[in-house]
Amino acid sequence: MTTEITVRGSYSAFQPPERATVRATLGFEGPQMQPVYDRVVRDLEAVSASVVPLHDPDRGPVTWWSTKHVRTWANRPWNKDGKQLPLVHHASVGIEVKFRDFGALARWVGGHVEHTAGFSLDGVTWALTEKVKRQLARDVRARAVQDAAARAQEYADALELGPVRPVALADAGMLGDGLHPTSAVAETAFMRGGAAADGGGGELALTPDDIEVSAVVDGRFVAG
Questions:
Q1: N or C: which end of the chain has fewer CB within 10 A?
Q2: Does domain 3-16+131-223 have CATH number 2.60.40.10?
Q3: Is domain 19-127 in CATH 3.30.70, yes or no?
Q4: DSSP state, 61?
């Protein structure tokens, strides 16, 4: 008689990020639209000009960048006494810049935070290159399968059933009747400590955590 053993295997690998995409916004407000709009356009030109010398898709500190369309709107705010105030005009534009050199990223962001009045940092997305991500995904999938096989063998050894052999293997959640699969490979990145100026020269310091690439699989084995 054979015994069926169903297990879930998992594995995670950690890799320092290789790319960082800065998301920033240039925005102003004022009593008239045209000056506000002109200020945003003028600052966008200055910020874009600071990116161009850094941009080289293959070797440069910046591998890619883009700007959004300038967005304008107006509203009439209320004061604390419930009185509606005069119309306020707003203009803003987003910019994204992908860096491979994190020191250059810190200098670029720090310079604009200090010297560009309407510049605000919305966030930084840390990532791996596609080549490294694909290789890590293959590796963690293989290790997750090995983990499932080792778990099944441990159960079989506890029951003195002898060696196990696989009869089914699937992404997590695909072996059950409900068929609720989860992603076979997941990628997670965090930024440790956020963004801060160091104590020496006031330069922005960005300290990302390693990126986690993980895989989860389900396996069905028989023994005995």
A1: N
A2: no
A3: yes
A4: S
